[in-house]
Amino acid sequence: MVSRLEHHDVDFRLGVVKVRETLVQGEEGPPKTDGSVRDIKMLQPVVDALRDQRKFALDKSDYVFLNMYGKTVTPGPLGKHAWKKVLLEMGIEYRPLMQTRHTFATLMLDGFETPGWVARMMGQTSLKMIYDHYYSYIKDYPSEEGQKFIERVYNPIMAKEEKTTPFLPHKDKGEIG
């Protein structure tokens, strides 16, 4: 199953690609799960690539990616011809095109993106797949455990609450103890 990206699905103003259709065995239709219908945030390299691609394809087709004959790119020929050739030229051992999806997940997790964000970008509705398939590849970087909580949650609460410990009972100023 793949998405056939159309120009109207790329929203440069919002910075997202809208996944609304898929191509399965030559037939277009809605994605197989509700979680697969989603907006994918475009990172800057994606924005740049899609802007370049738009210059090439916009007046030729409703679809973003076209082959040398001006027809919509499909995974079979893309993988068979272009993908294998690129891997060979780069000296990378062959792997299926689907591995780019796995590479994305692993690189994002390795770059400290949250597993929930990665799951949403991949159309997953739970974290189970992320932890089952990708998390074991992530390095265990040393960190200041708990420090993000202190900076982002605890300190702002404390600044608002006169330096009392949240969620613990405190006596009013007028009470004698």
Could you explain how this protein is built, in words?
The longest helix has 16 residues, at 75-90. The mean pLDDT is 82. The chain has a three-stranded antiparallel sheet, with no helix packed on it. A two-stranded antiparallel sheet has the order 3-4. It has two domains: 1-93, no CATH class; 98-158, no CATH class. It starts with 9 loop residues before the first strand and ends in a 17-residue tail after the last helix. The protein is globular. 7% of the residues are buried. The protein has helices at 44-57, 75-90, 99-110, 115-121, 128-133, 147-160, and strands at 10-11, 16-19, 22-24, 27-29, 38-41. It has six helices and five strands; from the N terminus they run E-E-E-E-E-H-H-H-H-H-H. It is 39% helix and 9% strand. With 177 residues, the chain is mainly α.
Properties at a glance:
2 domains, three-stranded antiparallel β-sheet, 177 residues, two-stranded antiparallel ribbon, 9% strand
Structure summary:
The protein has 177 residues and is mostly helical.
Rg: 23 Å
Say what oligomer this is. Answer: single chain
Helix content: 25-40%
Q: Enumerate how many helices there are, as a single number.
A: 6
Number of domains: 2
Reported for the largest beta sheet, the result is: 3 strands, antiparallel
User: How do the strands of the widest beta sheet line up side by side?
Assistant: 1-2-5
What's the N-to-C terminus distance? 68 Å
Average pLDDT number:
82
Poorly predicted sequence stretches spanning 5 or more consecutive residues? none
Number of strands: 5
Globally, the shape reads globular
Structural class: mainly alpha
Order of helices and strands: EEEEEHHHHHH
Strand % is 5-15%
